[in-house]
Each structure stands twice: as structure tokens, then as C-alpha cells.
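Attaching the record inline, Q. Sequence:
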Amino acid sequence: MKVVANGDLSRPHTIPESARNAEAMGYDVFSTSETNHNPFIPLTLAAEHTERMALQTSIALAFPRSPTDMAYIAWDLQNLSNGRLRLGLGSQVRGHIVRRFGGAWSSPAARMREYILAMRAAWDCWQNGGKFEFVGRHYQMNLMPPFFRPEPIEHPDIEVFIAAVNTKMLEVAGELCQGVFLHSFNTHKYTREVVLPSVERGAAKAGRSLADVEVSGGGFVVTAATEEALEKERTAAKTRISFYASTRSYEPVMAAHGWEDTARKLYRMSVEGKWGEMGAQITDEMLDEFAVVGLYDEIVDRIKERYGPYAGSIGLSIPVETEEDRERLAGMIRELQAV
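Structure, as predicted:
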């Protein structure tokens, strides 16, 4: 199992040092996300200051950018990092694409499928010199004069992952991608009954199997050094879970457990701006479904038990303030890598 470190994008000047430290600690992957910061600038810094770790966006938003724009960004990062890029894409939800980015929204799974194929058409054109042409329902592109073609690169095969929750997007991951990011808002039951069968159906369309698709993540990991600190982490996790549960497009995860009424109540509370009260709606039973919870000396075994049967990579971190903390985290990483 690969272990993923998440970069702190709020302090971009610290990215080189944190990426070097993550590599020295033994992490397999350094990851950046796109929430309130761009994911590519810090990943560029990490590429310059590391040699071994894979460099991953988890995720970069696809639809605010054209497939060709994303293809250029990925091509340059793949070249800069000597082939270490794992391009993780996500669709986001309609409200953000339309109201935050001013974009158009349409059938996200079908559009993502075309998006990936269009990117690969660009990469093939640049590497092999053929004609650039992609014609689909959502994207139609056929112009790539020589002046605008990047040179071929040493490692042209860029790994593509997508974030997926619902069945159609999971099938796209199975059909086209090297991997799928499971949302933190996920349960073991939903993974067994919905996620893995959907990815497998998609893989079968392309003559592949579930083993050809790396499953990354599985749910929340909640851990701390003491029982008192762990209780605070449990409360914080409930707040995060309530935020995701209030999003209507994620209701199928709640529905798998018969918790639709809670999801709808949380949606109403979010509309009313009652964000600070929403965490109280998440019960201990719900938390235990959405999260692996345990003290530092328990958490690795619990991660292995819950996610080990299907996860190819997992995120894990603890605060590192002393040399003892550093040694503890390095040991946790080694234990997970042995799965």
C-alpha cells in the first residue's frame, strides 16, 4: 500500500522543505488539492525539490479548464518531474462550476469520459506527431498547428486518476483511468456494495479488471496520541462529515445506510446557515462507518483491517513536533507499505 502526504498549500514558500521532508520520511506520494489554492504551483515546487515520490493532484478541477489546457499543464509537470505525475481530476458539483467558476454544467460522467479521451488525443499528437482531432458531444477539437505542439518527452504515459462517488463516474474510472480516488465521505458498506462493483463494470468495458485500477483512500482516518485529543478529533470529523452529508449529490452514500432523512435535514440546515450545529446530527454509529478511529498505536492495524483488502494507497499523517513523533510516523508508514 502506498502512503500519501498532503502538502500545506496555505504556505507555498514551505512546499520545497515539506516535500523534501516527506520524501525523507518515506512517503510514496506527495499530494496537492484544489480548494482555496491552485494545486499545480506547489506541485511544480515539489517536482524541483524531490527525486523519488510520485506527485499527485487530488484533485485538480477539470471542468473550469479545457481538456487541452489541462493537457499542457500535465505535459509540462510530467516532463519536469521525470515521469512522476499522477494527474487526479474531479468534476466538482454543479453549484461550484456554475456559480463559482461561471462555467457550464452538463452530464458530469459523460463529460469527464470525453475530457480524458480529449487530453490523451492531445498527448498522442504531441508525442507521435499525428493529427489532433477529437469529436464528442461535449468537446470538439481539431486544431494543433506545429507552433503550438510541445516537443515529445521521455515519459509520455501520464497516469490519470479521477475522484468518484456515484456509479457512472466510478464506471468511467474503471474504463479509462489508472486509479480512482474515493471521497473521504465514504463507508465500507458503500465501497463493497457500490464502489467496487461499479469500477469493475467500467473496467470490463475496456477488457480490464478491477486489479488494473488503483483504489486510493476509503474514508476518514481519525487518530491522536491520547483519549482526550482523540475525542476532539472525533468531534471535528463529525463536523466534516455533516458538511459532505448536506450535499445532495452525495445522498446515495447516506441512502446505503438508510440515513436519507438525516441527509435532507442537513441540507436544510446548510441552506439556513446553521453550519455550527450540523455536526451534532452525526451519531457515533455514523462516525464509525465513515471513519477509522483509533489512538496512534491502534490506527495502523485498523486501517489495514478496513482498507487493506482493496486500497492501493491511503493518506496518513500525524503532527510531528519531536524526534519521537518523527520516528513514530516513519514506522506507521513502513507498516502500511508492507500491506
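The chain has 13 helices and 13 strands. The first strand starts at residue 2 and ends at 6.

More tomorrow.
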